[in-house]
Write a structure and sequence with these properties.
isomerase, about 20% strand, about 35% helix, FKBP3, Chitinase A, domain 3, Transcription Termination Factor Rho, Rna-binding Domain, Chain A, Domain 1, about 220 residues, PPIase_FKBP_dom, alpha+beta
């Protein structure tokens, strides 16, 4: 069904000062089809369009609109908004991909040595909860922490395994990254540089600042 619009301004009104450029732009944007607006450069903020078009140009556009009857059809604004939304989403997605592509990759600040192979099937992913036994040592071999009493040289049974969620910052970054390279059942030695351990602050009473650390880790569960 075609839309019919009655001209709101007479020739005399258009020629006078009572009808401003903003009035004409507002009418044209509300009444002309998106195609017409694009062709005549009428899209955008009213004040900006009014700055870039003379009144004579806008009057000519006004007259042409009624000559061609290229009026806006019902639902046209909604379709245009949907098109803009999709275009914005597409641009955002492309920007994200470019940002990821350009983002410099940080070299790992740890080295992993396999002491006992795992099943090479099940690997922790970010968000998984893992269970581990570990012995934490200074580079000279001094043990500063462990939950594996047998490995600490005692005859008692092991304590409860350490349980944490991978990739969420619950442990030092060297663990967060290194554990994801281990498969279920694997025992590995993680030699972690200070930057991915406790950094410049260290851990009061246990680890001096800027200390590299060595962890023997056994991955016993993935939830």
């Amino acid at each position: 069904m075609s839309v019919e619009i009655t001209p709101p301004y007479t020739e005399d009104q258009l020629a006078g000062d009572n009808v401003s450029k903003k009035d004409l732009v507002t009418f044209l944007q509300s009444s002309a089809s998106i195609e017409f607006q694009t062709e005549h450069k009428l899209k955008g903020a009213v004040k900006n369009v009014a700055k870039t078009r003379t009144k004579e140009q806008l009057i000519a556009d006004y007259k042409e609109l009624f000559d061609t009857k290229n009026f806006k059809q019902p639902g046209e604004d909604e379709k245009e908004e949907e098109r803009k939304k999709k275009a914005t989403e597409s641009l955002t997605e492309k920007t994200k991909k470019l940002d990821l592509k350009d983002e410099p990759q940080t070299p790992p600040k740890y080295t992993k040595y396999v002491l006992k192979k795992g099943n090479k099937i099940n690997y922790p992913r970010p968000g998984d909860t893992v269970l581990c036994y570990y012995v934490g040592k200074m580079p000279d071999g001094t043990v500063f922490d462990t939950n594996s009493e047998m490995r600490a040289g005692q005859k008692k049974k092991k304590q409860q395994p350490l349980k944490f969620k991978v990739g969420t910052g619950q442990v030092i970054r060297g663990w967060d990254e290194g554990i994801q390279k281990m498969s279920l059942g694997e025992t590995a030695e993680l030699r972690i540089e200070a930057e991915w351990a406790y950094g410049r602050k260290g851990l009061e009473g246990k680890i001096p600042p800027n200390s590299a650390l060595v962890f023997e880790v056994e991955l016993v569960g993935i939830e």
